[in-house]
């Protein structure tokens, strides 16, 4: 039953991609709306800078539009887009890492990116948690941070992350495990817990 749902979703994406290739703007806008949040989370995990992340989102979808004819039916469209975004992040990082000043986000900017779904009424506590997570994520090594975001914000499976990053599934699991443990240790002081 689940494989039928995945197949239907793949067919739907392929149909949208085909329409977009033929110049259907609405089809391309639908694709953009479906995946822009995933691309933003990935780019933000890379740069920890909202402006850079938004630039990558724009550049990613410009590149997606130009390369739609390369998308292969049956492959994960989400992985394909995230692979493009990851490559753009790496290129930008290599080009600018020596001169770029990464600024910390203020609380309004953190609210604007909606790192977590807002459930319940305790908005201040939710905002505080987002700020703590955002601050602690900056302390993770680059690959751990990227894998954590892909797994926990973009809901990708280990196999999808491995495919997107071009590394072994075991490496993805190991880096995610290390990221979770390190984040827990980094967050403990903010949450008033002893190690």
Describe this structure in words.
With 195 residues, the protein is mainly alpha-helical. The protein has 2 domains: 1-102, Orthogonal Bundle (Rna Polymerase Sigma Factor, Chain: A), CATH 1.10.1740.10; 104-195, Arc Repressor Mutant, subunit A (Orthogonal Bundle), CATH 1.10.10. Helices cover 72% and strands 0% of the residues. It contains 9 helices and no strands. The radius of gyration is 18 Å and the shape is globular.
How many whole angstroms does the radius of gyration measure? Answer: 18 Å
Number of helices: 9
Low-confidence stretches: 98-125
Provide the helix percentage: over 70%
So what's the CATH class of the largest domain?
A: Mainly Alpha
Key attributes of the depicted protein:
Arc Repressor Mutant, subunit A; Rna Polymerase Sigma Factor, Chain: A; 2 domains; 195 residues; 9 helices; mainly alpha
SSE topology sketch:
Layout: H1 2-21, H2 25-47, H3 50-67, H4 77-96, H5 107-113, H6 123-137, H7 142-152, H8 158-165, H9 169-187
Short account of what is shown:
The chain is an all-alpha fold and 195 residues long.
């Amino acid at each position: 039953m689940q494989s039928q749902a995945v197949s239907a979703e793949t067919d739907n994406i392929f149909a949208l991609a085909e329409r977009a290739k033929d110049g259907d703007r609405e089809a391309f806008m639908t694709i953009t709306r479906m995946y822009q949040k995933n691309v933003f989370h990935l780019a933000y995990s890379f740069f920890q800078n909202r402006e850079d992340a938004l630039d990558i989102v724009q550049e990613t979808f410009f590149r997606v539009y130009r390369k739609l004819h390369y998308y292969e039916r049956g492959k994960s469209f989400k992985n394909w887009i995230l692979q493009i975004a990851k490559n753009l992040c790496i290129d930008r990082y290599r080009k600018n890492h020596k001169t770029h000043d990464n600024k910390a986000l203020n609380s309004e900017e953190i609210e604007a990116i909606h790192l977590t779904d807002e459930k319940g009424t305790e908005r201040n506590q939710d905002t505080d948690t987002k700020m703590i997570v955002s601050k602690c994520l900056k302390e993770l090594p680059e690959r751990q941070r990227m894998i954590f975001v892909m797994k926990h914000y973009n809901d990708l499976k280990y196999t999808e992350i491995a495919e997107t990053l071009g590394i072994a599934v075991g490496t993805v699991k190991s880096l995610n495990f290390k990221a979770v443990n390190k984040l827990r240790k980094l967050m403990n002081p903010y949450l008033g817990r002893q190690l």
